[in-house]
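--- STAGE predict ---
source: upstream dedup step, 1 unique chain passed
mode: sequence only
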Amino acid sequence: MLVDKYYKNENDDKISDIDRVIGGYIKAIGQENCDAAVLNDLRDEVSLYLGSQARFAISWYPFSKDAVVLEIGGDFGNIAGELCDRAARVVIAEESLFRAEMICERYKDRGNLEVYAGDVFDMEFPCTFDYIVILGFTDKIGNHTTAAGLYVKAFEHLKNLLKPDGRILLADENLYGLSVCQQGDGSLNPWCHVRKFSKAQITSLLNKAGLGYVKFYYPLPDYKLVGRVYTDEAAPTASEWNALVNYACEDVNFLSCNMDLLSELTDNGLFPVFAPYFFAEAGKEDNLAGLKKANGLFDETYEFPLLGFNWREGGYPSLTDAVKDYRRKAVGRERAIAAISKTDQDHEVLEKVLAVELDLLRKLKQVCDENGLTLFAMYGTLLGAVRRAGIVTGDDDIDVALSREDFNKLLALKDAFQGEYFLQTPAGDECFYGGYLKLRNTNTTALHPQNWWVNCCEGISIDIFPLDSGFSDAGKEKRKRLKIKHLQRFLYAKAYGYFPNFRDMKLLKWKAYKYMGKLFTREQLAQQLELALSETDGKESSPFGIYAHYLQEGREPQIFDRKGFDEIIKLSYEGMELEAPAGWDGILRKCYGDNYIDSLPWYESKRRHGFYDTELPYQSYKPHFRGLFRPEPAAGQQVVLFGDEALFESYFKRYGEKHVPGGIVSLSNYGKKKSFHGIPVQKWDEYIKVMPDPAQIYPVICSFDLRGAIAWMKAAGMDNYYVYLHNREWVLLANYTFAMREFD
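--- STAGE serialize ---
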């Protein structure tokens, strides 16, 4: 039940992008267990607000079964399910109306939950409480201020909401916790995070508010994700502390850097002062829980790994050597964790795509080795070989390069690729990629909007670039690049002349290339481009690199230091050895900057190099994507829209007058509209029961989650589906939720 009469901030409740995504997950999943979202989206916020592990923040505390509990700041119901299981009645006071609504949506089947929207200090409740819970209290009742008077006043107000024997439960970071005191070099910084409180300060504030009895608990590794809980009577050992908390200073474990300090803190009973987090229990009477130690995620049988605390006993000459040995042993575990890390919604498909790409790389390497050709790892593949001896986490592309001489030899070996292997060349297919090659698997799918209406091979592929030299004379080099640019544009116009404009070319320029290009065959233009790419004066001082990228306005070829290729080394890559230039550091700095070794953050808008399927060939998809109303629906066929309500209106704006649908079916469980333009909206479960013969339907998918919608169509026998795309580029998104937000 939602109570919103105390909500006064209608104009201030701005919904952040991540809140919208989390709300979307709650609606889409339709139940309080939202672990399915965490499997697909590993952002910290999603894991914190929707993961079932959040329940451990409070599961260890001994609530009385008939308790009435007030939680202040419920977020998205992180611990609401646990509270409802443990108490007779639960009230949540959430400042954000949107979050309050999402809590109600998530826990709609709970009969003992009430959610109030607004400021808790404006609210009147019909009862008093046995417990008031505030996780992250400096944020939820103090807005991160350190003004003592404000907190005393707040605690006095909350004390009046308690029953005589009631208790307030608070959790937050410790002002003097090691996690907030460390500086980048591992030394302590006592002035960091001054908007937090120490144990002594929070005790004083509670006492001044009339809560004379206070007990502290110390959850590790965090009060939001509790592995074990310690107290003044039962502190962790140094090794437990180290294993449960993961701090980092630069690239060295912070606790290992300060091993002697940690040992002294625990040995001298100072752990409570410097514990990273605390959980305080406060009341008016001496009836606080008698816990000395509690388990959350880790019970007593859990064996903690050690990191360097016994390095002298282990025979290591120094702690540094102990840490290096630990890391060496941990590499396999880290690789295994990275391999199963589910950071994108297409992760299951991506794992299969990478297997296909690695097979293509092995085939290419086999042909090159058999013919004495040197195959260099390049771009992201070189980065992956250097950083982790394999594919960079989240990448979907393999790039290699050959010298111009070896590249031309490979062109002559295209017949060495038989069966599912196809070497795609500028002259050999209707598509075009600037002057480089692709090795494709013809039994798979990697559709790209650029090739929407051409009959080219669109199987999963890897990229093969030529390494070319230029001219030391600036004038000749400029003319070379200009010639390459013109020939590339002629070939693009030859392949994609159906587009009204293309990339950086305006209408008139694009038309000129289209019509002038008709004077030449594709083979003639491809041959001229190959000659232009390979033109050079042969001097050591001439530019050297990859010219075969599309040279749009302002873009130059990727030029490297020629000396970096003077020596060749071997680098491991997913179980095979690839050649790499000894000057790989300069190449990676040129391509990715000085911090190339650092992993990039996860981002929802990530795009792939195609719409993938490893089980079906591209021919089985292309008619469905490019063929909307080509052909027109047959006599007696009824157009039916399937998908998301947000896109139905988009369809009507484009096709609604000419192709009025006879039915609309929502594939979402949280749709609210009952009709569009007078046409009723049916739920999938309802429609499937009365669905006519699939041959009588012209199914049009209008969905953000294309892959999921296509699976539903096929399962229902509607193999003749067509796809409506509000934006063709959306088919390349790794996370369709980004399209949802972009559309909004």
